[in-house]
Design brief:
about 625 residues; mainly alpha; Glycosyltransferase; five-stranded mixed sheet
């Protein structure tokens, strides 16, 4: 919204100023002051302003003609400056990049490989070792060994041995063992029927045996059953019963203080942790830091070799992340967009954090750096559409993006020119890298991603300008694109896929289910975390408000409904993962990126807007992940 002002400059009697209005005269390099009492409506959107003689200067008094000035009324996100300054990031230094630590890590990896290949281990111990490697965040060192073991055990499963043979530690009658085996198989893409839990159901089959919750020592089994249930797909009634049954009993045990740990309270912590968010919905890297410090180090069954490797590896990987962050900080300072667009969220560290939620391993360094740049541009463009740009400016900007019109940049205001040209340079940089490495031209594909995102942003801007409240269906149909997941994942695809196949690219840009489902989880989790603040700032209604408008429900009920939608989307995601595993279209790293984007959303927005608003819980998470090593 803008207002045209007629500035008149003849000498006039003194006004009794109530409040001053100022603007900058760029030609004369001076600031002009006007009294609020001298503002008078002039019709047709024009306002006549005469200078306050108490404050006007010689340059104004010497001016002998009226001038037209346009003052644009813009919203503000009132975002705080970044917590992590350029100087702070550049000062990061760690000893864990030294060769001696890398050498020690390699020695420990070899020792753990020997543990995995011990044939005499009974099944439950082998499964617990694999699970601990994942929970400690070091399973990526042992992918071949873990796949070899699970493939062997899966063959035993389909031959009826695992769940029916005492040689395998009576998995059939042991809820803890059965649930752990089921979870690990599904977690690694193996098809396992929910029927393995039938033996634990009551005579009528409509629930599980009440006796499973009677024994204090049954807590471990209930916890594993609860965690396993989150790998369900649509229509798996047994797993639905398993979740409800285990969740109710675990909460009751917490309320009745009936969780005994023998030594320490690690089981109690794990139950609370799981009820807050299950393993399947958690991001591996931050969860590993929590597990190392809060659980494994205190466990009476702790293996000192595993613990040393987990801590050392965490520190070594953290040192790699710090070096990448320093590189990105220099890039961010150099392009200068934080100063040119001061209204936008300056969140470089948070934008980097999103990338280590998925492919955190050192070998994905280039992918993380480029993915962070994607996140930076998404944040800036989101704030242009949501906060700063006028509708007229946004329409021109969107038109330039849709046509990717370099020559049309002259129609844009300066801040949009800077943003668009920086984005164009980034797209060219990534496209050149892919063309050089694989001979595949990705420029038109990447440009389409940004065009689709801006079109979705434009729709929301129009809704806001008209005061239109979309239906939930209208909102979702646009919002799963405006949340930016398709842009993030299209870039991730070209960063981690080799070789690039035309069939996969075509399916990607038809918005394959893996993209759509990841986007839905991201959108809904974002709405739960950011909706209150965005409504205060002034924004289009989110899923929560749309549901409230349609159903007449209160906010708490609407939030529960959105959580239910997230749960249903995860069921679809599990189903899609099974299909992709059996008929691979995309490479595993891309699929993992898509799933982890949904997990990262639930991590970033668990306590509110962890991306935009720098609240204490998020600061602590960033410090522990990026800046504080473990003592080894």
């Amino acid at each position: 919204m803008s207002t045209t002002l007629i500035i008149c400059t003849p000498k006039i009697p003194k006004y009794n100023p109530i409040k001053s209005l100022s603007f900058f005269n760029s030609k004369k390099k001076s600031k002009l002051f006007f009294a609020a009492s001298s503002i008078n409506p002039a019709g047709n959107g024009l306002i006549i302003i005469r200078p306050c003689s108490l404050q006007c200067n010689a340059q104004v008094n010497n001016c002998d003609q009226a001038r037209l000035v346009t003052i644009v009324n813009r919203r503000s996100g009132n975002y705080e400056p970044p917590v992590w300054s350029f100087d702070f990031v550049q000062s990061l230094n760690t000893k864990y990049k030294e060769e001696r630590y890398l050498k020690r890590g390699s020695e420990l990896v070899e020792q753990v490989k020997k543990m995995l290949l011990v044939d005499e281990q009974i099944l439950i111990h082998k499964l617990e070792l694999i699970d601990n490697l994942y929970m400690l965040g070091i399973s990526y060192h042992f992918e071949d060994e873990i796949n070899q073991i699970l493939n062997y055990l899966y063959n035993q499963l389909i031959n009826g041995n695992i769940f029916n043979n005492n040689k395998y530690y009576d998995v059939r009658d042991n809820l803890y063992s059965a649930a752990l085996a089921f979870r690990l198989f599904r977690q690694h893409g193996f098809r396992v029927s929910q029927d393995v839990f039938d033996t634990f159901k009551n005579e009528t089959g409509d629930s599980f045996k009440a006796s499973l919750g009677d024994d204090i020592n049954s807590t471990k089994g209930l916890l594993q059953l609860y965690e396993a249930s989150f790998f369900m797909t649509r229509g798996e009634k047994t797993l639905e019963l398993a979740r409800e049954f285990s969740a109710n009993l675990l909460r009751k045990k917490l309320d009745d203080d009936r969780i005994d740990d023998d030594k320490g309270d690690t089981l109690l912590l794990m139950v609370r942790h799981a009820l807050e968010l299950p393993i399947h919905w958690r991001v591996q890297r931050p969860n590993a830091g929590w597990f190392i410090e809060q659980v494994y180090e205190k466990s009476q069954h702790m293996n000192p070799i595993l613990l040393e490797l987990a801590k050392l590896d965490f520190n070594v990987v953290q040192s790699t992340h710090q070096q990448e962050l320093k590189h990105l900080s220099s890039w961010w300072e150099q392009i200068g967009l934080a100063k040119t667009l001061p209204f936008a969220r300056d969140r470089l560290v948070e934008n980097y954090l999103w990338t280590i939620g998925g492919l955190f391993e050192p070998r994905y360094g280039y992918s993380r750096i480029m993915a962070t740049k994607v996140n930076v541009f998404i944040t800036i463009i989101d704030d242009i559409f949501d906060v700063y740009g006028t509708l007229e400016e946004l329409e021109i900007f969107n038109d330039v993006i849709q046509r990717w019109d370099i020559e049309g940049m002259d129609k844009l205001p300066h801040y949009m020119q800077m943003c668009f040209l920086a984005l164009n340079n980034f797209v060219d940089e990534l496209s050149y890298h892919v063309l050089k490495q694989q001979g595949f031209l990705v420029v038109p594909h990447l440009r389409k991603s940004w065009a689709d995102l801006c079109m979705a942003y434009m729709q929301e801007a129009k809704w806001y300008s008209k005061g239109y409240a979309p239906t939930l269906e209208e909102y979702i149909n646009n919002a799963w694109i405006s949340i930016s997941a398709p842009v993030i994942l299209s870039h991730a695809f070209f960063l981690v896929t080799n070789p690039i196949k035309k069939e996969a690219v075509r399916s990607l840009y038809e918005y394959h289910n893996i993209v759509r489902l990841s986007a839905m989880i991201l959108r809904l989790a974002n709405d739960l975390g950011t909706s209150p603040d965005e409504m205060k700032r002034g924004d289009v209604p989110k899923s929560i408000e749309c549901y409230m408008n349609e159903s007449g429900a209160g906010r708490e009920e609407a939030q529960d409904y959105v959580r239910c939608l997230i749960n249903e989307t995860w069921k679809e995601m599990n189903e899609e993962l099974r299909v992709i595993t059996e008929s691979p279209l995309f490479e595993r790293d891309f699929v993992r990126s898509a799933v982890d984007l949904g997990r990262m959303a639930q991590y970033m927005y668990q306590y509110g807007d962890g991306h935009g608003i720098q609240f204490p819980e998020m600061k602590d998470r960033i410090i522990s992940l990026l800046f504080e090593p473990f003592c080894v």
